[in-house]
Amino acid sequence: MFLRKAIVSIYVILFSTQLQAKVEISPEKLDPTVNKLMEAWDIPGAVVAVVNSDEIQFVKGYGVKQLGGEAPVDEHSLFGIASISKSFTGVALAMLVEEGRLNWDDKVIDHLPDFAMPDPWVTQEMTVMDLLIHRSGLPSISGGTLWYRSDYSRDEIIQRIRHLQPTSSFRSHFDYQNIMYMVAGELIPAVTDTSWDDFLKTRIFEPLGMTYTNTSIHDLDENSNLAIPHAVLTDGKHHAIEPRDHDNCSAAAGINTSARELGAYLQVLLGQGEYAGNKLLNPELVESLWKHRSPLSMRKQRPIEEAATVPVLYRSYGLGWINVDHRGTRRIYHSGGIDGYRSLVTMIPEKDLGIIVMVNNEARDMVYTLTEIILDMAWGIEDFPYVEHTIKESLEADQEWYDEIDPKSRKRNRLKLGKLKKSKLIGTYSSAVYGGIDILKEARGLRIAFSHTTCLQGELSRWEGDTYLIEWDDPYIPRGFVLFKRTDRGTEMVMEQPELLDVDFTELHPIIKIP
After folding, report:
1. Which strands, in side-by-side order, build the sheet including 341-348?
2. Whole-model pTM?
C-alpha cells in the first residue's frame, strides 16, 4: 500500500510539474504556419500572442492592416473582439457582487423596472445570473434585428424585448444571445450611476494598462492603429469595410483592443487576480467566472473546434467563458465574431498558458485552427495532420454557403403572376418586435426601408408572383427575398432573408401593413 501511494505521489508530482512548466513557442516554427493559414483563408492581417501569468511570452503581427496598403499589423493594432467582450461584462458584475452592491440571485426587475420578457412569470423570476448563462428561453441570437446597426438605444432595446417570442421554457435550454448581455451591462449604471463603458475603463482597462482599448468605434480617430475589417461582399470578393457602430450592444460585442493589451487581461486571469505584482481581483472571483453553469450539448465537432485530435468529454458555459476538457486539463475559451473580424482567446490555467489569435476578416476557422496548432505545440506535438483537411473542409463549407444564398440557385417561374398590384404594396408595415418597415415607390420600382436601421434599405424587383428580390444598398448584406400575401390580418410581408452573423430575420414576423 505504501509503495502504491508513493508511486501515485511521484506520478502526481511529475504530472503537475509537466503541466506547470512554462510553454515555449518558437517563432521559427510558428511563422510559416501562420503565413500558410493566412494565405489559405485570404487574410490581410493577423496577430498572435502567447501569454503566461507573469509575461507576454510571444506577440507578433502578420500582414497588413488593409488590403492594398503597406501599414503592417503589429502587437498594438486594434481589432474588434466582439463576443469576447462578454467576459469583461462578467468580470465587472462579479466585482459588484463581491462588493455587495449586487447579488447573482437578484431579480433583474428590481434594478431595471422597465425590463420585461414575453411571459410575465419569467419577467418576475429572471435573475442577474440568468442574463449571463443563455437560458432565457429566447432562441439563439434573438433580438439581433433590434440592435444590429440600428439607432435604437440600449433602453429602447430593453423596452422591445417583451415582444420577442421564446422557443423553449425558461432555464431549460441553452441558446446563445447577445441581447441579454446588453441588459446585464445596463445593471452597472443601475447600481453604480456609472455607465458600463466607464466602469470597464476605470476598473479594468486602466489598472491593466489597457490604454488604447475602448468600447466604441467613436473612440477611434484617424491616428488610431486600427486593423481595418474586411469581408466578402455580394460580388464574391474581399473588401475593406467600415468599422461598425454597435454601441447599443457593447456589453456583448463592443470592445476594440490589441493583442498586447488583451494579453494583460489574460495575465490577470491566469494569475488568479494578480497583475505585475498587484492584486486586482480575488482568486475566488476569477474561479467564479469559469465555474460550470450551463451544460452545452455534446454535438459532433468539426475538426477545428476544441479538439482536432482529442475527444471532448464535457462542454459548459460560465460567465462569458466556455469550458471544455483538453488532454486532462481545463480549456477555457471564447470566440468573437463581428463584421470583418474574428478572434479567439484560450486559456489552459493548469499550464499557465493563454493564447490570442485575431484576424481582420471573417475567417473563423483560421483562428480555431491556429489555436489548435499552438496548443499542440504546448504539448510538444510537432505534426499537425488535420490542417490540410480543415482548410479544405472550411473553404468548401464557405462556398456552399455562398452558393446557397446566391439568388441564381433558387428556382424561378418568371411566368407566375402576382395576385397583388405593386401600388397596393406601398405603405408602412409594422413588426411588434422591430417597429416600422416602409415599402416605397421609386421611379425604378419599389424600395424597402427599415425605419431604425439605415443599412437595411434596398431595391425590390419582382422575382415571381408576389415574391420580390431584395438588393440591399449595403453590399455586405446578402440578397434576400420578401413575399407579400393577403391574410385575415391584412397585407403581410414575409422576410426570406439569409441570416447575418447575429441577426435572424424570422423574429420580425408577422409584419403587417398599417391600414
Report:
1. 55-63, 45-52, 353-359, 341-348, 329-338, 322-326, 315-317, 294-295
2. 0.93
